[in-house]
């Protein structure tokens, strides 16, 4: 029986429900039956093409009755043929699918990801909970073995067969990596034999194929390799002769303990050097107290072993070193005033063993906040201090932590203000003013030293130049605008929480990372903080669990001969305990030949994050307006390409597949983000920092920065959906649109921006909620600078704190909390995140959709 499947309203792939009813037709069905029964066995392909043409003619010329118009008003695709018979007897049917507008015949049912969505009509597209990563269309066995999307994610979970098909889809192909993230379960392989492909050096993984017990075929280059004798033994089951059951072949994320073959030198110790600004500006800001207190509290938690070393340098117009050699009664300060020819006064006693000199280190940290209280030094010799730090760290490598509060004004690397309110988005100001910091970073990287920057500034400090010290040495950047310990308690609390995480999180030293992919695919651009050592090798002097990376890819050779492709990232590093380790992640994805399947597998969040990385590069190399245009064009081109695959769409419609329904919303959010927004209201350092985050944040954190989550929280005790976590009841309120229309004066709302939680209280919010959750009798009594929720013995308080704790537990950096009222100055920051609303310089979401539609129709 030949059955006919009809498209659901809006076009796209079929839902495959309706069956062909011959008695609905009059004389035209005689012709149809004649064609059907006399042509089917002669030429199936010709028959199907004729049928499609016939029905199109019927619809256009005969104006069928109302029931037939309703039945056939969308595209038709033939399916429900006996699949096994068709594919065996007519192998050309695969090729036929491409002639039917890119609609695949291989699906027995339209996937939900291809359900057409009319964006201009359906305004409630936001899901009730966070958007999950799409699951690749693999068989259940491969799906179970595949790498977690939290570690390894591709913009397209269905890989196009050819570059031409990828170009047609108008979507970027790339990977989003979070290779060193914290894991609760990580198989550690201690075998002396690490099995790798002899040709491409791929690590053995779940997606290789065993030809027999003694040979395995590489899933990237297809070379056949021998199975080493030792690999025949399975240490988990203690059995012999089952290499396919080894942990390396059962887990897509594993960590190997590496042998001496993976070492150029003995593993280095953990070495930490702190470089601290002690100018008048720094002392006035009060950051030293927080840094020294955090170090005192976490000194014993610094990652390392008995060899761990630590040192301190301070600077203003001179550079001060501290002799902490064991045996001294107190720390000795050594001042070098010749900043043009910096030298180390006592090279052997400035970096000391943490355990042997712990008491001296504690004495120094207790004394430092008060040592410069009366200083009148306003200058900052940051460059010379960094030169000294480089000399001190070069023999071993390690981590330099720099704390800076102003524009460097003396010696090498001095900078001048470039902050012109009328040119804040100028391309030349988004790039560095000098190459001093980049050169220094490359020198540090060569000596296995990373530089992390903490910028605590109340004025312009040229972050575009300073950031280079971290970008090219695989360091990280923290930024605290308008920092003041007492005047800005929210920023002070943020620094305190960031430092706790920073000082105690896992760290990898002298690392390199290589990304491999199946033959036919190639990597051409990397994004993140690193130094590119070769075409596919990244040098990472340090690697931390909060660092994300992205890569762009292309298809160099047709993938028609394979149904699966794989990607593998291998991170070789030295642990803080001095072990050489290799963390390997392997991702497997299907190859598809139809345009519809490419769209069905689109990962909209990964696409947006990769485009964000690309737009940052475009902003610096070309201009901000070019980057913005490119982002808008990405939406226009991809939706136009999709709509061209489905005929009979009205020009007044803006249709997207369900997989991409959030694409325009996310791009609008990106355009309104500090990195890319127009106008001169965004400070230059703020814009540059947002760009730095785009290039170095893992996807899950970056998405909250781009499109925060908004929840109503004044009715959590009535929330029907809850989960239980550690004997706590955690309510699960639905996500709200980022629009002021969702804010009611009777309610209270929590906005999760990733690094900060805003709680907005409406003027007419219930006094019971304010009393139970905020601890104040009414709205008027709630203070302006409230950053903590009290523990009140009330159900609403318990549920609210439980929900916020649950959100906090899902990320490494603990966000700060800020309670906002209508008259609060921070209200501006809160309302800037309501991206669906119109602003003076930007479209509302609906206006943006109309603009997209207008450009598609041009």
Automatic annotation (TrEMBL):
GO terms for cellular component: COPII vesicle coat; cytosol; endoplasmic reticulum exit site; endoplasmic reticulum membrane. Signal peptide: none annotated. It comes from the Eukaryota. Keywords: Cytoplasm, Cytoplasmic vesicle, Endoplasmic reticulum, ER-Golgi transport, Membrane, Metal-binding, Protein transport, Transmembrane, Transmembrane helix, Transport, Zinc. Residues 508-592 form the Sec23/Sec24 beta-sandwich domain. Pfam families: Gelsolin, Sec23_BS, Sec23_helical, Sec23_trunk, zf-Sec23_Sec24. The chain crosses the membrane at residues 34-55. InterPro entries: ADF-H/Gelsolin-like_dom_sf, Beta-sandwich_Sec23_24, Gelsolin-like_dom, Gelsolin-like_dom_sf, Sec23/24_helical_dom, Sec23/24_helical_dom_sf, Sec23/24_trunk_dom, SEC23_SEC24_subfamily. It is found in: Cytoplasm, Cytosol; Cytoplasmic vesicle, COPII-coated vesicle membrane; Endoplasmic reticulum membrane. It is a peripheral membrane protein. CDD domains: Sec24-like. GO terms for biological process: COPII-coated vesicle cargo loading; intracellular protein transport. Its main location: cytoplasm. One of its GO terms (molecular function) is SNARE binding. Residues 731-804 form the Gelsolin-like domain. Residues 194-230 form the Zinc finger Sec23/Sec24-type domain. Residues 603-703 form the Sec23/Sec24 helical domain. Residues 267-503 form the Sec23/Sec24 trunk domain. Belongs to the SEC23/SEC24 family. SEC24 subfamily. This is SEC24 homolog B, COPII coat complex component. It comes from Buteo japonicus.
């Amino acid at each position: 029986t030949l059955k006919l499947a009809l498209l659901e309203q809006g076009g796209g792939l079929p839902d495959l429900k309706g069956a062909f009813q011959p008695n609905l037709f009059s004389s035209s069905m005689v012709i149809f039956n004649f064609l059907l029964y006399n042509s089917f066995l002669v030429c199936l392909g010709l028959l199907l093409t004729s049928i499609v043409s016939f029905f199109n003619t019927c619809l256009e010329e005969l104006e069928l009755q109302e029931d037939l118009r309703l039945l056939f008003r969308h595209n038709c695709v033939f399916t429900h043929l006996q699949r096994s018979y068709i594919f065996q007897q007519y192998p050309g049917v695969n090729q036929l699918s491409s002639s039917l507008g890119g609609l695949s015949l291989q699906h027995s049912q339209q996937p939900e990801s291809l359900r057409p969505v009319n964006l201009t009509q359906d305004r409630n597209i936001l899901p009730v909970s966070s958007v999950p990563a799409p699951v690749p269309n693999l068989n259940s066995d491969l799906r179970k073995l595949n790498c977690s999307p939290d570690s390894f994610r591709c913009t397209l979970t269905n890989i196009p067969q050819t570059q031409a098909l990828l170009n047609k889809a108008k979507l970027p192909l790339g990977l989003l990596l979070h290779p060193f993230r914290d894991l609760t379960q990580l198989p550690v392989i201690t075998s002396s034999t690490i099995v790798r492909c002899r040709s491409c050096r791929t690590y053995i993984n779940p997606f290789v194929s065993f030809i027999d017990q003694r040979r395995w075929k590489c899933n990237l280059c297809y070379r056949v390799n021998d199975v080493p004798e030792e690999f025949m033994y399975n240490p988990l089951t203690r059995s012999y002769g089952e290499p396919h059951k080894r942990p390396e072949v059962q887990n897509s994320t594993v960590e190997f303990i590496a042998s001496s073959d993976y070492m150029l030198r003995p593993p280095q110790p953990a070495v930490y050097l702190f470089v601290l600004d002690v100018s008048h500006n720094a002392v006035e800001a009060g950051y030293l107290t927080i840094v020294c207190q955090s170090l005192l509290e976490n000194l014993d938690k610094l990652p390392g072993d008995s060899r761990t070393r630590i040192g301190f340098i301070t600077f203003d117009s001179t550079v001060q070193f501290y002799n902490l050699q064991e045996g001294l009664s107190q720390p000795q300060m050594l001042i070098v005033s010749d900043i043009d020819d910096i030298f180390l006064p006592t090279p052997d006693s400035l970096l000391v063993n943490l355990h042997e000199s712990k008491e001296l280190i504690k004495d120094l940290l207790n004394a430092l906040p008060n040592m410069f209280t009366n200083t009148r030094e306003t200058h900052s010799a940051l460059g010379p201090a960094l030169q000294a730090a480089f000399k001190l760290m070069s023999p071993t490598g390690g981590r330099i932590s720099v704390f800076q509060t102003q524009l460097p004004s003396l010696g090498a690397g001095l900078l001048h203000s470039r902050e012109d309110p009328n040119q804040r988005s100028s391309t030349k100001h988004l790039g560095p003013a000098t190459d001093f910091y980049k050169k220094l970073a490359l020198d540090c990287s060569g000596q296995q030293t990373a530089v992390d920057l903490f910028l605590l500034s109340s004025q312009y400090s040229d972050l575009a130049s300073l950031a280079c010290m971290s970008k090219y040495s695989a360091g990280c950047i923290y930024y605290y605008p308008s920092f003041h310990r007492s005047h800005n308690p929210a920023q002070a609390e943020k620094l305190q929480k960031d430092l706790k995480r920073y000082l105690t999180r896992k760290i990898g030293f002298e690392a390199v990372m290589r990304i491999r992919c199946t033959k036919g695919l190639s990597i051409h651009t990397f994004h993140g903080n690193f130094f590119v050592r070769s075409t596919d090798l990244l040098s990472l002097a340090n690697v931390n669990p909060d660092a994300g990376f992205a890569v762009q890819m292309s298809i160099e050779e047709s993938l028609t001969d394979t149904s699966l492709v794989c990607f593998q990232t291998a991170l070789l590093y030295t642990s803080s305990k001095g072990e050489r380790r290799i963390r390997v992640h392997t991702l497997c994805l299907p190859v598809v030949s139809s345009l519809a399947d490419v769209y069905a597998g689109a990962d909209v969040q990964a696409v947006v994050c990769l485009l964000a990385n690309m737009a940052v590069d475009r902003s610096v190399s070309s201009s901000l307006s070019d980057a913005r245009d490119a982002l808008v064009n990405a939406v226009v081109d991809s939706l136009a390409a999709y709509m061209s695959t489905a005929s009979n769409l009205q020009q007044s419609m803006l249709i997207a597949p369900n997989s991409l329904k959030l694409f325009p919303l996310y791009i609008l959010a990106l355009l309104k983000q500090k990195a890319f927004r127009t106008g001169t209201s965004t400070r230059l350092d703020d814009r540059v920092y947002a760009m730095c985050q785009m290039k170095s944040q893992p996807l899950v954190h970056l998405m909250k920065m781009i499109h925060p989550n908004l929840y109503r929280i004044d009715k959590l005790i009535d929330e029907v959906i809850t989960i239980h976590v550690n004997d706590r009841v955690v309510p699960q309120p639905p996500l709200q649109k980022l629009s002021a229309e969702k804010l009611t004066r009777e309610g209270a709302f929590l906005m999760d921006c990733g690094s900060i939680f805003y709680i907005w209280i409406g003027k007419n919010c219930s006094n019971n909620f304010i009393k139970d959750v905020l601890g104040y009798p009414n709205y008027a009594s709630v203070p302006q600078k409230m950053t903590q929720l009290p523990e009140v013995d009330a159900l609403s308080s318990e549920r609210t704190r439980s929900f916020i704790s649950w959100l906090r537990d899902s990320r490494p950096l603990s966000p700060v909390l800020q309670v906002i009222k209508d008259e609060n100055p921070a209200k501006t920051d809160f309302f800037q995140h309501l991206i669906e609303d119109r602003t003076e310089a930007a479209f509302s979401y609906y206006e943006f959709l109309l603009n997209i539609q207008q450009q598609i129709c041009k």
